[in-house]
Amino acid sequence: MNTKSLFLKSALLLLAYALPALAEPPLALVPQPAKVERGVGRFTLTAQTKIIVAPQTKDALAIGEYLAAHLRPATGLALPVGGGNAATGAIMLQLGSASKELGSEGYELSVTPGMVIVSAQQPAGLFYGAVTLLQLLPPDIFSAQPVTGVAWVAPAVKISDQPRFGWRGMMLDVSRHFFTKAEVKHLLDAMALHKLNTFHWHLTDDQGWRIEIKKYPQLTSVGAWRKDIGFGLDPKSSTAYGPDGRYGGFYTQDDIREVIAYAQARYITIVPEIEMPGHAGAILSQFPDFSCAGKPFGELGAGVHASVYCAGRDDTFAFLDNILTEVVALFPGKYLHIGGDEVPKDNWKKCEKCQARIKAEGLKNEHELQSYFIRRVESIVNAKGRTLIGWSEIREGGLAPRAALMDWIGGAVEGANGGHDVVMSPTSHCYFDYYQGLDHSVEPRAIGGYVPLRKVYGFEPVPAKLQPEQRKHILGAQGNLWTEYIASFKHVEYMAFPRGAALAEVAWSPEAVRNWDDFTQRLPVHLRRLELAGVGFRRLSLAEENPLGEWKPAQMAQEFKTLEWDVTPALHKAGAYGFELAYMKGACGVAIRWAALLLNGKEVSRDAHEAFAGAASRQNVYKLTVPELPAGAKLTLQVSLRSDGGTDSSGEIRLKPAPAAKKKK
Ligand code: ACM
Ligand code: ZN
Asked: For labelling, which of 6, 205, 267, 411 has a CA lying 20 to 30 Å from the CA of 155?
């Protein structure tokens, strides 16, 4: 054989090996499983495919039916679900056979050309295995309409998967704006697609009471309705108007049971929230006796934040006990959320009864009165066999002994160190009512803030300051959809996704497999799934999400030098922006003395202040103004910096909201 034919032969051989691998598109699973091994070949769904469930428990059969129901619309295949032995061409759902280490939510999934086997210890794991199988098929599988011309194949893989955290949550505020049970179910469907397992239902607040309580019918007959939509919103942005034109709505107890059953079939636990002692305007408008003033305070509306329960009256607690009795009878989960956030203390300061309580109980102040209130409610909740959970502020004046904390403005480390369980939902990463884009002229009006997708994806639920032995107290993470400025369900979805997909990966996937670039490569396929499944979302804008540029050790010097980056792709709109120099790693940091923007090479904006980007950053956001951009304009960012204490620093330049001007004294 001459060298030429040897070369040809080895090239062909190489191709033969490389081709099957090349032919298989990358998997686009969201959230990314713990372990994935690609195999050779693919499994094909056909009219002969059977879903075989073993053993045939009620739960396993229901999961088989769920899978069949999701495979049917797009393919037109009505796959039978039943018992039987493993057979070629079948999808096997096996319960109780998987490794014990997979825990209650883990699963193994093996796809070979001959068979699919999903196995799990517990039904939840089997369910998640079925969800992963759906994602292995072409995204068209999520279409509600028949799709032709698609090969219904799943690539051969071996997956072993289980969640990092047991609380993978999403909260929906249905008080500020009301969403129907059909809409809530739609959100539960979208959650199931992301293996999110906890729906926190914010059912009561100042602006509306949404859960029927049989003992107190006026809570919903009157307290679920207000004069208008409020919050300065267009009345047409919602359809939640009663026959008399008032705005609102509520769920009957039958509605709630129906939603709970729907959630259970998707392995989602619902945590109801009944707000107290503050955010109680809707209930106290109906029962003013339980407020400190003891008298009606006018119509419900967007501005109501009027009242807290009187902590000095014993009948307040009897009243709440009656309400919670009905709530607990409906919701089977372990946790009962009692709110506890943002309790104004003015009423308590002025109230004779509250002051008498402070004296009688030997409390120091109104913060301790808040703690007294929560402890007393905790004993009611515990007596009903449930665990109380509340927002950060339930720590005020001392945390109730068995309570779990939902951290939105801190307290996780202190709570966990004190032996309390904690759910992480900080405003910094988990407030899905905050803006997700910087150009507010194209974003729907939001409450404020800036929580882009990348920020959510970068969230680490375990606080760095927590001692390793206390990490077990971090139950997981949750995204919060407060709806003051969100009146339609389409808008809810726009705020929820894809940030909810990022959060799902934060809460499910091992830290080691989380990778932003990889996530953004999987995301377009995932967004196609959502689109076909009828789930709304915000389109991905990588130019905005990704850093504008980075600096590396090789660019560092001990003297000031000017680095520059082409920022044209990310900036389209005139206005003031913040440019953050974000330190990423290295023993040293960088000292910065100015940043400037150049339009077609000519300086148009400059911020000259001294800053430092390092382990302890100082003033490292520069405010620069982008001018009107003529077509074809090139925009360059220049920064004058030098490394400080070495030359191993690396970092990123990120777009931020423009920093507010410093107040002059
Ligand atoms: C909250 O956002 N007030 C918990
Ligand atoms: Zn009082």
From this structure: 267
